[in-house]
Design a protein that fits this description.
Helices cover 24% and strands 23% of the residues. By secondary structure, it is an alpha+beta fold. The protein has one domain (10-237): minor pseudopilin epsh fold (3-Layer(bab) Sandwich).
């Protein structure tokens, strides 16, 4: 008769230990990836709001703008997230004097647009810990006719109405989303939303490009030297 051999306590202990080791490795990798996912989410949502503002300006025949209310000059200064912006509708095709944050109620009682206020700062409803919006460089002064500063303005043609000084030397406005966890470790992980004078926008950086085709010279963004923070290697910020 063949005897049955049971499982020893030592074998059970070894299996349990191996499971624990694998679980800790997986948890560590997951924890490291979370800020990367959040950075991508913040940039994608901003890109979606930019595209929506442009589309509504064309459809409604009035100005729309993205008003950037909070940014961070040095992403390595603290671990707290920072960044807030509003999507707003003007009251005229140009030189608007009043601005309403979406959603805007129309005569029928319906609303135009979704929620128009986003704040990713720590503790806020849209909080994305470990992510920050870098202070814009060059800064935004708005349209030459006297529109508000710190805003990207779209006219009914879909064009960006901001003065030429608001654009970089290559003709783009750049809004940068920084992974603060990586920045604090001296590594640049930056996703850039670039907006062309014609109103087309895309997200660039890392291994991802979302938005218009970069085939022609007129739509090729270059967020190279001098456009990031001085934290570490600069490879992630150059659009692909």
């Amino acid at each position: 008769m063949r005897s049955r051999r049971g499982v020893t306590l030592m074998e059970i202990a070894l299996v349990v230990a191996m499971i624990g080791i694998l679980a800790s490795i997986g948890a560590s990798m997951l924890t490291k990836q979370i800020p990367t996912w959040r950075t991508r989410r913040a940039a994608k949502e901003f890109l979606a709001h930019v595209n929506a503002a442009r589309a509504m300006a064309i459809a409604d025949g009035v100005e729309y703008r993205i008003l950037i209310e909070a940014t961070e000059d040095d992403p390595t200064d603290s671990t707290d997230a920072a960044g807030a912006y509003r999507v707003q509708q003007g009251n005229a095709a140009s030189e608007s004097t009043e601005w309403d944050t979406l959603p805007v109620e129309v005569g029928s009682g319906d609303d135009i647009g979704g929620e128009g206020y986003v704040n990713i700062a720590t503790g806020m409803e849209d909080s994305l810990p470990g992510v920050t919006i870098k202070t814009l460089d060059p800064p935004l002064f708005g349209p030459s006719h006297g529109g508000s500063a710190d805003a990207i303005h779209f006219g009914p043609s879909g064009m960006v109405l901001n003065d030429g000084d608001d654009f970089g030397d290559d003709g783009f406005i750049y809004v940068r989303f920084v992974n603060k966890k990586q920045a604090l470790e001296g590594v640049d992980e930056v996703l850039v939303v670039s907006i062309a004078r014609g109103g087309l926008a895309r997200m660039v950086g890392g291994d991802n490009t979302i938005g218009y085709s970069a085939g022609s010279g007129s739509t090729t963004a270059n967020a190279g030297s001098g456009s990031g923070y001085s934290g570490g290697s600069s490879g992630s910020e150059t659009p692909i």
